[in-house]
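Final report, closing paragraph on structural work. Over the funding period we assembled a curated collection of sequence-structure pairs, and we close with a single example.
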Amino acid sequence: MLDAANQYVDVFLIGLLLSPVEAGLYYAAARIAALFAIVSAGLHVFSSREIARHAADPAGPGMREALRLVGAATGLAVGGGVLVVVTGGQILLDLFGAAFHAAYLPLVILTVGVAAMALGGPVPAVMRLTGHEAAYARIAGLFVLARCACVATAALADGLIGASLASALCSLACAVVLNASCRRRVGIDPSVLGLFGGAGPFRGTHP
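Its predicted structure, as stored:
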């Protein structure tokens, strides 16, 4: 339910507060940006088996190695995807029609936000499989509400660009808070920082 709300509630709000045309532009941009979410979701599902295998020892070498592999694949996919969007975003929007060229800047902004979530790594899988699903649900739920409020306020103040910026900043903030919670509760950093040793044991953890 949280994932579905995250994908569509902002489109509904923009259509309600601005216009159906701007909601359509935003939807096209959001769907292209969501390619990052599809790639990262696939990687996270693939990694769930390894995460489950090492859930009893989340700070152990097995978990760290699994997260580093996922981080490397995610980093390559996200880096390539951002390059494609920045250089070929207009071509991608042409798939929807020439009128959608106006959605290029929102597309770039939303891509940054979705990329930040993807680079955060398989936080949902790690927290659910290590017994912290309630904490994950609370944080994600609060950010869905915060995103609704921020997108609505920014849309009224600055239109489509403001709404896109608010959505991207909320995604970035959510990724940071979720990773901080995962490090504190589980003892590991599942983000791409794990490539540089960030997936190791984290001091100050608690059950």
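The longest helix spans residues 133-185. The helical segments are 2-17, 20-33, 35-53, 61-94, 104-119, 123-129, 133-185. We thank the funder for supporting this effort.
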